[in-house]
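I have been asked to look over a protein record a colleague put together. Alongside the sequence sits a line of tokens, each denoting a local backbone shape. Please read both lines and tell me whether the tokens look consistent with the sequence. Take the sequence as given and treat only the tokens as open to question. I have pasted the whole thing underneath without changing anything:
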Amino acid sequence: MSLDKDISAVAGIIHDSKKVTIISHIDADGITSEAIMRQAVARAGIEVRSVFVRQLEPITMKHVPDDDSLKLFIDLGAGQQNLLEERGLSDREVVIIDHHVTQDVDTQYIQANGLPYGHEKLSAAGVGYLVAREIDDVNIDLAKLAVIGNVGDMMARENCGLIGPARKIADDGAEFGNVEIVKDDLNCYGISTRPLHILLSFADDPHIPGISNRPGEAQNMLTYEAGIQLHKPNGKWKVWEDLDEDERKSIMGRLALKLHSAGEPLERLRGEHYIFPDERKYTPLRNASEYATMLNACGRWVKPYTGSAVCCGDRGEEYREAEHMLRHHRKIIREMMEYILDKGVTEYSNLQYIHVGSRFPDTIVGIGAGMALSKLNRRLPIMVLCYLSDDPELVKVSMRTNETMVQAGVDLQAALLEASEKLGGAGGGHKIAAGAYIPKESEEGFAESVNRILRQQLA
């Protein structure tokens, strides 16, 4: 078999169905995946409904309807096929579109998944888009959503841009006209909304000596060294998108000099951005990474249907709700980061960790961990543990690291999978970002266990 044949098989089953229920995840990849498939299925004249779940586990299987619809699991399902079997779902009732490690079970569920074919940088939204294109070429406009899903699930991070099938999907968007690919640009988050000095001060990949975490120094460099006027004629701050090519080159040249002077590599300074010309400037919908953040905010605060509505074109009430979710999300993330920095982390030889108890919801601790890492010891992956409000018997574990540590051999997914399975828990994710659930009675000593595994990875 091949990925193309799997995609064709899944598309054929969907096309021949009378009713489809989409079961998807709540993050940016899951929300874009759902929006892609819901629109593709509806355009084919098939009755469709959607269900979002935080995780696919025994307690959430109750949300999967007991009816005669085709159950389309996307951005989940590959690693939880035992739950589908236990539910009594046959191979004729299920298709799976995913990008996570697949599970061996007796039932041969039809699946489209790039991972078994070596496509590690292709998210579920990317595979879903390929299925949608197979259903009907008219769905080329949905490439934009696949780009958001791929970028939101860190598929572009390691290579500072999308590669392989994910990059070809971006080309589809460019061909259609709702994606603009900006090559060899500053590899930094917030190019459409953040004032220039704030943008640079948040740079963490790479960390720029003298600039990262120092907005005042960033402002001085821009004003006095690069000669950049930071305000527009209307008095508002300029953003990166406002700069012309010469201004961008001038700034990046100075940043490169700072990296070189500190003996730091330069290759991660430049990357590729994906701009959406059909969206208004200075909004979080303008580029893939900021759009994905808005969708993550919706999902993490139990509003995935709002994010889906935005993906499907709502720029009215649902979009205003999404903006509210984004502001709230950023506020709580900022509070969590400050809490971690104020309270301090416990450092082991290969890991730093903190337990936040019930202070912050489990849906955002991973994001807060990632932001805090930029201000802590960047050579140690960070682990954050927290309690779950709806399940007092479990502890959520979230981990984040950076590309430098991944290149050195760190694999957070493998570490959490190994450590949690020994305790009867479960883990998953990616090398650079992963999570797990473990029994509450087993939380003591868990950090030491993960630290030992990381030490073995780096040996």
User: Anything to note?
Assistant: DSSP finds 16 helices and 13 strands in the chain. The chain has three domains: 3-138, 185-330, 344-458.
